[in-house]
Design goal:
It contains 4 helices and 16 strands. The protein has about 230 residues and is an alpha+beta fold. The protein has one domain: q2cbj1_9rhob like domain (Jelly Rolls, Sandwich), CATH 2.60.120.620.
Length: about 230
């Protein structure tokens, strides 16, 4: 049972041991099977149509039940990313402060990010940092920050070291970031985004048109029924 009051207040929840070791191993192997690069920061998206094991996890994994606790009985999957921070002192592996809705805006903002550590994530290898209660600020303007979209933030936030299999849950308005991987081993995470099936993807279609989330080819119902 999730602490929904704390989630509403802080804007995020840390969930320990969401995914077992075997699932982490399998999901991590898929990340490297599809990795677009072997140095720096590799971000590989929307692979559920290419990987049966990833598709099964996205649609049936333990995070789906958590999504129903926070979003309600009807839940749609909409976006997936593998994020690999390769050990590479010459390449950039940090990600600036940003909100997920600053990259993909959903209206109304009835969405949930499930960020799953597939390796132990530490302050040395680029664990996630969050700014508690920043979701109360609403959607902020995102501009270029060192070549990526982000928000300039003067506050330090807090680090979230995680063991492989742990997850953090947050909505599209929570500010978060990650620092570089300064170790000699890759750090792998899986990002999944779920939402209420009634939401609209703003500016996602041809010529910047809005698109109903269920009209997007990568969005699937994973719980309950479509409207």
């Amino acid at each position: 049972m999730l602490d929904r009051a704390r989630y509403a207040d802080d804007g995020y929840l840390l969930v320990r041991n969401l995914v077992d070791a075997d699932a982490c191993t399998q999901l991590r192997a898929e990340a490297f099977r599809f990795a677009s690069r072997d140095r720096g920061l590799a971000v590989d998206t929307q692979l559920i149509h290419r990987s049966a094991s990833l598709r099964d996890f996205v649609t049936r994994g333990p995070q789906v039940l958590l999504a129903t606790e926070l979003l309600g009985p009807n839940v749609c999957f909409t976006h997936q990313q593998y994020i690999i921070k390769h050990p590479d002192a010459q390449a950039r592996t940090d990600v600036p402060w940003h909100q997920d809705s600053g990259y993909g805006r959903l209206e109304p903002p009835l969405d949930l990010t499930v960020w799953i550590a597939l390796d132990d994530c530490t302050t040395d290898n680029g664990c996630l940092w969050v700014l508690p209660r920043s979701h109360r600020r609403g959607l902020l303007p995102h501009d270029a920050v060192k070549g990526l979209r982000g928000v300039v933030v003067d506050e330090p936030g807090i680090a979230l070291p995680m063991r492989a299999g742990d997850a953090v849950l947050f909505g599209g308005w929570l500010l978060h970031r990650s620092l570089p991987n300064a170790t000699d081993r890759a750090r792998v995470a899986l990002y999944l985004r779920y939402c209420d099936p009634r939401v609209t993807m703003i500016g996602h279609g041809a010529n910047g048109a809005d698109v109903a989330v269920l009209d997007d080819g990568f969005s699937w119902m994973v719980a309950g029924e479509a409207p």
